[in-house]
Amino acid sequence: MVAARTGLATRGVLYVLVGLLALQVAFGDTGEEADRSGALATLADRSYGSVLVWAIGIGLGAMALWRLSEAVFGATGPDGRKATKRASSAARAVFYGVLAYSVLSFAAGRKENRSGDEQSRDLTARVMDAPAGPWLVGAVGCGIAIGGIVIAVQAAMRMFRKEMDTTALPPWARTTVDTVGVVGGLARGAVFTAAGGFLVYAAADYDPAKARGVDDTLRAFAETPAGPWLLVAVAAGLLLFGVFSWAMAVWRRV
Question: How far apart are CA 38 and CA 238, in angstroms?
Fold first, then answer.
């Protein structure tokens, strides 16, 4: 399906850009944020940047349509029509739909002046002001953290193999795909888990300022005893996940 392959390729571009920005942060460059907004700003500053940003938005829209089709008609594979699979695809369709709208709004000139981290804290504050708000924020944080753990475990177990057809590749190429898939998935899972943990922390202390977006979450890795080298490892992993997404765009069964 064209929509699936286009969406996966687009996801790869974003992860490669975020990984590169995070590497720059690790080595002392505090310029662009290492998140989606930073990636879009980086593209917009290049020649034909507006065209590239429009292409990213359209690609993410294609990703949303693909996931929506899986929710409605079922995904490929023997368990693709299970309710859990359909629900997962529906949630992903909503996520990528919102992401596509945000990117297309940026491309149309309706740029958000606030950083991704500020938007995350503002949204957390609004939810906390609602009835049972802290409990809702905590639940969302737990869900994101658990999702990150699941992503990491599935990557470590190489569960992506059943979604790909790499039989035509030589052994060294299959090994390479496995390696970038495992390393990239572990890094992606680590970021999701950490971001979810910060949300739970914010809910427990009733302090929206403790919620972190992708950029602040990545910078937090450099604040650990391992120092910036942990951020280097995570950033390199996110870059590799972008490369893996390109491999999925080519060899995934859709």
Answer: 15
3-state secondary structure of 206: coil
d(Cα 187, Cα 148) in Å, to the nearest integer? 9
Tokens 């992708």 identify what position?
214
What mean pLDDT, rounded, does the chain reach? 87
| pTM tops 0.85, yes or no | yes
SS3 call for 111: coil
Mean local confidence (pLDDT), 179-208: 93
Largest CA-CA distance found in the chain, in angstroms, rounded:
57
Q: Please list, residue by residue across 71-83, b when 16 or more beta carbons sit within 10 angstroms of its beta carbon and e when fewer do.
A: beeebeeeeeeee
DSSP 135-153: HHHHHHHHHHHHHHHHHHH
Token pair in block for residue 125: 């504050």
For residue range 171-191, list pLDDT tens digits in order. 999 999 999 999 999 999 999
In sequence order, which residues have a C-beta less than 8 Å from that of residue 219 and are 6 or more positions away?
25, 34, 231
Residue 16 tokens, joined: 């490669």
